[in-house]
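RECORD TYPE: inverse folding
INPUT: structure tokens
STRUCTURE:
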């Protein structure tokens, strides 16, 4: 059996708000109840379980590999909502996207303060001929 990531727990101040926020930005199906959690499924069979721990928690970083069309649609939703975004994790280039690794990327925050990233090419990938 190969080892695969099955699910992650993402702490949220309000699990409904945070799970629905990401579903809306990424154009995913609405989150579904999964016991104490709200489950949000992504294409590679990984489930994000949103939960409210009831304690303060440290902001985390989550990066999503998306197609060019999904990037365009998600960036449009970010802009339509008036969300702040940046080309870099240090926010030195606010309101911009990057073209790292032969693709495009953008950073933004979710309602619980987690740093979200969308990329169209994996880190370390090289552009292919004609791209």
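DESIGNED SEQUENCE:
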């Amino acid at each position: 059996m190969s080892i695969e990531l099955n699910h992650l727990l993402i702490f949220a101040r309000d699990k409904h708000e945070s799970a629905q926020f990401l579903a809306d930005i990424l154009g995913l199906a609405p989150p579904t109840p999964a016991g104490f959690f709200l489950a949000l499924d992504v294409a590679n069979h990984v489930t994000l379980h949103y939960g409210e721990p009831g304690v303060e928690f440290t902001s985390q970083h989550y990066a999503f590999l998306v197609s060019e069309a999904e990037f365009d649609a998600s960036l449009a939703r970010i802009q339509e909502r008036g969300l702040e975004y940046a080309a870099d994790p240090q926010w030195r280039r606010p309101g911009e996207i990057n073209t790292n690794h032969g693709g495009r990327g953008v950073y933004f925050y979710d309602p619980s303060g987690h740093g979200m990233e969308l990329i169209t090419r994996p880190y370390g990938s090289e552009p292919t001929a004609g791209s």
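NOTES: The longest strand covers residues 7-11.
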